[in-house]
Design a protein that fits this description.
single chain; alpha/beta; DNA polymerase, domain 1; TIM Barrel; 2 domains; two-stranded antiparallel sheet; 18% strand; binds iron/sulfur cluster
């Protein structure tokens, strides 16, 4: 794994670490910097309650390790950012706005993704490296600078969050910190494709934010074909881990089902899903698959999705249709990666002239 370039960026630190890393004395100056970052400061020079000598010394140091390269705005209020990292790699982050005006930040945890889910654009790009805590937190800060702090966060962008669990934990502790952004624990969701050791680790050591699992199919044959992770941890192993998680946390789990027409959209698929879920306390988010050029699937017909949902409900499973927010900016589920270049590989995640380390 290649390390990120922002290990010393203050945006990826808790107040006590900031004071030490920036040689600020007394230690409460670390909290001042932390609060300024949460308030949207773009440089140390703006931090007017720091002594002039500290501001002067730090003014030569960039506060952020990343920068917004471009942004795309959709009619529904959604925004997709292409964010350039310090080493020249790029990621995408999305702001989704629902009908009530609630804003959700959809954040990435890796550059590309190694999991290769067959229906996902990011999965076609390959994997470059993990993001560090600053690179995760800065995505939220860039989105917040556009129209205020999003109340909700989903780790559902590029990458598999549970393969980068230590950086994710640190980023969440920064995002939730009461002296900073103070995002509520219940408003943060980690979405995994089913990394069983990560689910067990989360159950044991937290953070106990909301957990979502991309299930998509509930027979091993179909899930093996759509999600290679299933060949490593099959449905029985995944279910054991989720029951363990639920036993520890008492939380309801969200299962995501991206529905591709004619692939996993049948009533029989829904019926298998309902059987598999029992006795878990889970809700299924039914997501009509968003078209992605180059992938061999079709959008499901309205009737197919309706019949799928009806079968889940008939079998006593709570099914919720996910609204297609973010589609106008290709920021909907599985669509991240299309601003990163035409090659469709990890090469597209670096600037052409970027130096690789
Ligand atoms: S769906 Fe998630 S885990 Fe699967 S390839 Fe896409 S980004 Fe990776």
């Amino acid at each position: 794994m290649t390390e990120g370039s922002s290990l010393l960026s203050a945006t990826g630190m808790l107040p006590e670490d900031i004071a030490e890393a920036l040689s600020l004395k007394p230690a409460f100056r670390g909290k001042q910097v932390f609060k300024w970052i949460a308030r949207g400061a773009a440089s140390f020079a703006e931090m007017s309650d720091l002594p002039a000598s500290d501001r002067e010394r730090l003014s030569r140091r960039p506060l952020f390790s990343t920068a917004v390269d471009s942004s795309l705005k959709g009619d529904d209020g959604s925004v997709k950012l292409k964010i350039r990292l310090g080493d020249g790699a790029a990621i995408e982050s999305v702001l989704l706005v629902d009908a009530e005006g609630r804003m959700t930040a959809c954040l990435s945890t890796q550059v590309g993704c190694p999991m290769a889910c067959a229906f996902c654009k990011t999965g076609t790009l390959g994997f470059l490296r993990d993001l560090d805590p600053a690179e995760i937190v800065e995505q939220y800060l860039h989105l917040a600078a556009i129209r205020g702090k999003p109340s909700n966060i989903v780790f559902m962008g590029m990458g598999e969050p549970l393969l980068n669990l230590e950086s994710l934990r640190k980023a969440i502790s920064i995002l939730m910190h009461p002296d900073g952004l103070a995002v509520s624990r219940r408003k943060i969701t980690i979405s995994t494709c089913g990394i069983v050791p990560g689910i067990r680790d989360l159950a044991d050591s937290g953070p106990h934010v909301r957990l979502a699992v991309s299930l998509t199919a509930a027979t091993d044959e179909l899930r093996d074909a759509l999600m290679p992770v299933n060949r490593r941890w099959n449905l029985a192993t995944l279910k054991d881990a989720l029951l363990y998680y639920q036993g520890k946390t008492g939380d309801r789990i969200t299962l995501e089902a991206a529905i591709m027409g004619g692939e996993n959209s049948s009533v029989a698929s829904a019926s298998a899903m309902a059987d598999w879920i029992r006795p878990m306390n889970a809700q299924v988010n039914v997501i009509p698959w968003n078209p992605i050029p180059g992938l061999p699937y079709r959008e499901p017909e309205r009737g197919e999705v309706g019949a799928f949902e009806a079968e889940l409900e008939r079998r006593g499973v709570n099914a919720v249709r996910r609204a297609r927010r973010g589609r106008g900016v290709s920021g909907a589920c599985g669509q991240l990666g299309d601003t990163l270049g035409a090659s469709g590989t990890v090469d597209a995640l670096y600037e052409e002239d970027a130096e690789e380390d």
